[in-house]
Amino acid sequence: MVKDERRKSPRVDVDFVTVEIYRDDSFATDHAEICSVVNLSRTGMRFDSDRKFNADQLLKLTFILPESMVIIRVNAKIIHMSAISNEMYSYGVQFTNLGTFEQKQIEYFIQKSLNDRK
Length: 118
Hints:
Helix content: 10-25%
Number of strands: 7
Largest sheet: 6 strands, antiparallel, barrel
Number of domains: 1
CATH topology: Thrombin, subunit H
Distance between the termini: 26 Å
CATH superfamily: predicted glycosyltransferase like domains
Strand order of the largest sheet: 2-3-4-7-6-5
Shape: globular
Structural class: mainly beta
CATH class: Mainly Beta
């Protein structure tokens, strides 16, 4: 049985992208976690972590897109979480304050990734 796709934005699997997750309300130098990004869309991302976060928790994320020197800093909200194992979790987050420039950079990266697969 095929599930209906509910996503509004295409997403691409990514390699070699990590996300830094920060505590509190600032981008301090003390990050809480560095995680591997599984996939990325213009509205959010999925990453895996051995740290347990809470549903609806707000996070501060920082990441760099491959082939780009642009640092993207964004607030995000956990909208999906699942246990991969007893010690690993998968999180889906939705960006909450992505700037226009950063959104265009992500859209360009996704479109280029989709075109490269054809």
